[in-house]
Amino acid sequence: MEIKQNYSLEKHNTFRLPVKARWFLEYDTEEDIVTALRDEYFMECYKIHIGAGSNLLFLNDFNGIILHSRIKDITVISENEESVCLKVGSGVIWDELVQYAVSHGWGGIENLSHIPGEVGAAAIQNIGAYGVEVKDVIDSVEGYHIPTLEKQVFSKAECQYAYRSSIFKTEYADQYIIAYVNIRLSKKPLFSLSYGNLKDELAKYPEISLQTIRDAIIAIRSKKLPDPEQIGNAGSFFMNPVVTEEEFQELKNKFPDIPSYPASDNKVKVPAAWLIEQCGFKGQAYGQAGVYDKQALVLVNLGNADGNEIALLADIIIQTVEVRFGIRLRPEVKYIC
Ligand SMILES: Cc1cc2nc3c(=O)[nH]c(=O)nc-3n(C[C@H](O)[C@H](O)[C@H](O)COP(=O)(O)OP(=O)(O)OC[C@H]3O[C@@H](n4cnc5c(N)ncnc54)[C@H](O)[C@@H]3O)c2cc1C
Q1: CATH topology for 232-336?
Q2: Buried-exposed string 123-141: b where 16+ CB fall within 10 A, e elsewhere
Q3: What is the mean pLDDT of the segment spanning 94-118?
Q4: Which of 16, 164, 184, 214 is catalytic?
Q5: Per-residue pLDDT tens digits for 113-158
Q6: How is the chain split into domains, by residue range?
Q7: What CATH class is the domain 74-224?
Q8: Would you place residue 192 in the very low, low, confident or very high pLDDT band (cuts 50, 70, 90)?
Q9: Å from CA of 178 to ligand 1 middle
Q10: Whose CA is nearest to atom 52 of ligand 1?
Q11: What is the topology classification, in CATH, of domain 2-69?
Q12: SS3 for 240?
């Protein structure tokens, strides 16, 4: 376990904002979590937990304690002919887990290749891409209740997964430290290839396998999304709005070109990127904050933006889209102040 004071978070947020944390506590084991949080001072302190900071927008320096997991073990806890169940530390880099699974021939998460962040956050966010969500492979999630320090194991049903959401973002937001995520992968994987231009990209490869699916997805994503090492960003800044069938028909009458995808419960998902692009924001700069020129859903730090400048641009986009389409965009990125 390591505790640092007045610690720069520049390398811990993908917008690369040079904010500082009053305290930064990294733990290596479950015992560390309990020991650290039993300390009276830290117990009382304002605290949040972060992963790799790839879905966060810091508005200021953080005047409290930031927790970060360095639990990095991956253990096979059960297996049979069909599947394998892995217990994965919350501090494991998500994409390293995907590579690990693919190299063992275990399927289920290859479509989630190249998503930044750590395993603990993946289970909180219900990350998704190319027709797959992480909830599809989650068996259970192990966490510590911050106020009582009691350990609890949440079944998949108890996690209440929904589009980019779970109970850890709603009822239990900021109440649990996720220590381990238990994931079930298939030894006889069925490939999920129907989403977007994945099949076209795969046609460039000699065969379809877990590894070529991973390679194709990395190739597509690298062309489409900015690398946070080069341009600060947090991926999709907004969630795709979900509307009822009736609401969508009204929109379609007014805007015949509006695209859509089916969502659960007979609802309709409207791509936020299209709404933003129609309002003329794609590629535009507002001070040091901007809208990425290849993908309107991504807000970028053009160099020296501060969090409030990016939040202001997000507000302008939300208001403009609402006036034009009557749809209020919701940030996927979490604001920290
Ligand atoms: C270039 C780029 C592309 C992206 N593409 C996608 C994509 O295709 N699909 C997608 O779903 N997302 C995508 N994202 C968003 C992001 O990668 C995910 O939301 C990711 O899961 C965030 O992980 P993180 O470790 O960075 O978490 P953070 O951003 O640090 O934190 C996210 C949330 O999890 C909480 N948290 C983190 N770890 C723990 C823990 N151990 N215990 C308790 N709480 C914790 C934090 O408090 C916060 O609420 C993208 C981001 C970028 C920058």
Answers
A1: 3.90.78
A2: bbbbbbbbebbbbbbbbbb
A3: 98
A4: 164
A5: 999 999 999 999 999 999 999 999 999 999 999 999 999 999 999 9
A6: 2-69, 74-224, 232-336
A7: alpha beta
A8: very high
A9: 13
A10: 235
A11: 3.30.43
A12: coil
